[in-house]
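Task card 7
Instruction: Convert sequence to structure tokens.
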Amino acid sequence: MDSLRDIKRRIKSIKNIQQITRAMEMVAANRLKKAEARALAARPYAQNITNVLSHITESTPEKAHFFTPKEEVKKIMVILVTSDKGLCGAYNTNVIQHALKFIRENSQKELKLHLFGKKGNIFFQKRPYTIEQYYTNTVEQLGISSLQTGDNKITEISAKIISDFEDGVFDETLLFFTKFKTVMKSEPAGLRLLPLAGTGACSEDTEEKKSMRVDYILEPSSDAIFSNLLPRYIESQLRQAIFESLTAEFAARRVAMIAASENAEEIIGELTQTYNRARQEAITKELLEVVSGSEALVK
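Output:
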């Protein structure tokens, strides 16, 4: 059994760790509240721009290659959003494994990775996969600071995705991120950015969609509107994926820190019992020694 001093030192150490985990929980809860509001507020914009783009694709036959999947896909751009920090449970593992499953299923094709977040870069650096681009900006900087400071990093990335697709550098562009559901539930998700998923020839033309279809009068032209709207669509999807991922990350970190604090409390309780037991044994031993010594003196 450890000495009383060692047990006391361990209790003090775990209490210090518990203070840190509680502080991190409070920080994560505060950031989660802001991130959730931002993600929920951005969803209608991303959805509406998708709907508008879906309506005008049929009026732009000259842009058919943007929404018609190729018969044979050989080159794929994979964009993955992970976190820059750890201590968030299985958040990074889940989204990486989701992307990795797709990569393994398409191992015969040429896949190049574009990574948002340090954790994804660390994972794939140690494995035989081609990292085309790792964006050194933090995920939060890419999603938020560009809106506040006027930095057009996401706009630049969106323009490059479109130009690479037009030039035939890639046949498909897929985006993997974590979709926020609730504080206790988030799940990895995948979205095909190009060719456009859920628009034009890629969408299922149901009776309900036909009944909801609206005939637009397009000015100046459908081609001009499409060319202006497509970069905004790609940009909105990238930003939304970042917002969803950040919210899921903060939620996962908060849950992880709550669990860590509770575990620390349990360990402190067990160590306190061990300390009290050892202390009682030491006191009992000392009393026995005193009694034995006094009896020896009497004899």
